[in-house]
Amino acid sequence: MTPRRLAWLVVVLVAGAVLVAFPRLLGGEAGGGAGDAGAGGAGAAPVPTSVPAGSVEAVVDRVVDGDTVVVTVAGQRERIRLIGVDTPETVKPDAPVDCFGPEASSFTTSALPEGATVWLEADASQGDADRYDRLLRYVWSPDGTMLNERLVAGGYGREDTYDDAYRYRDRFVAAEASAEASRTGLWGACG
């Protein structure tokens, strides 16, 4: 395990312990509910109740494209690759912009404006990072929805199972089937 991955694992474990234990010390409920400070400890935004316990608070720095964002988490800038979704390319070197790529990037930029607080959920079935050293995560938006799933449901990207099935795969497959059947987003725009 690389030192970076080991450090990230320690951050996630400590954050999970804080989310679970700290509210109990104050006589409150278990972590993960609205109003918790989150892993960042800043308490900048209440944690939506839909965000799974153990998710780590981060702040959006910028959107790279529809399925890749840069965030600051625990004082470190990290590139995040969204699990389970593949959006059309817009920034791939030596490649043309794909059909519906700009729309996917615009949607992600709207959903995750610079400075927004988000929550990152890991999935052990997918590993920690991809071959480009981007952390693999589900990104929970300030409104309590999961961006990965919204991209698939809105036709901004396709469901993508890389190697192993991931935690929310059945939901994403159903969302993709619905978007395709109704010709939503790329399903209606790209032949």
Model description:
The chain has helices spanning about 5-25, 100-110, 145-155, 170-180, 185-190; strands at about 55-65, 70-75, 75-80, 85, 115-120, 135-140, 160. The chain is of the alpha+beta class. The longest helix has 23 residues, at about 5-25. The protein has five helices and seven strands. The model is unreliable at about 15-40 (pLDDT under 50). Strand 2 (about 70-75) and strand 3 (about 75-80) form a beta hairpin. The radius of gyration is 17 Å and the shape is globular. The protein has a five-stranded mixed beta barrel. Helix 3 (about 145-155) runs parallel beside helix 4.
Helix content: 25-40%
N- to C-terminal distance: 43 Å
**Morphology call:** globular
Radius of gyration: 17 Å
Strand order of the largest sheet: 1-2-3-6-5
Structural class: alpha+beta
Give average pLDDT, whole number. Answer: 85
Low-confidence stretches: 17-42
Instruction: State the helix count.
Output: 5
Percentage of β-strand residues? 15-25%
Order of helices and strands: HEEEEHEEHEHH
The largest sheet, given as strand count, sense and whether it forms a barrel, is: 5 strands, mixed, barrel
Number of strands: 7
